[in-house]
Amino acid sequence: MTPEVDYDRDFYAWIARNVALLRAGRVSEVDAENIAEELESMGKRDLRQLRSRSRRGHTNPTHDAYRTERGLTRCRRFAV
């Protein structure tokens, strides 16, 4: 693993490096700023999805499970 992995060039390698550093307890070496941005982005995305589902009155757990496993595009044809 390279000492520095560029967040903008190789996202997967960046994730792998930071996960390894965190698991090894080397917290001072992680890319904290970009990790914070990614976590914030994930939280906003999840909140948007929750709000969207609430507006649609979506409550079918089987549909949600299929959506999670197969992705949104395959699920559209089975919309409730």
Q: What do the pLDDT scores average to? A: 79
- SS content category: mainly alpha
Count, helices: 4
Largest sheet: none
| Beta-strand residue percentage | under 5%
The ordered H/E elements are HHHH
Shape: elongated
Q: In angstroms, what is the radius of gyration? A: 18 Å
Portion of residues within helices:
55-70%
- The tally of structural domains comes to 1
Terminus-to-terminus distance: 46 Å
Number of strands: 0
Uncertain ranges: none
Description:
The protein has 80 residues and is mainly α. It has one domain. It has four helices and no strands. The longest helix is centred in the middle third of the chain and has 25 residues, at 32-56.
How would you summarize what this structure contains?
Pfam families: DUF29. The protein has four helices and no strands.
Topology of this protein?
Elements: H1 11-23, H2 32-56, H3 61-70, H4 72-75
Label this structure with key terms.
single chain, 80 residues, 0% strand, elongated
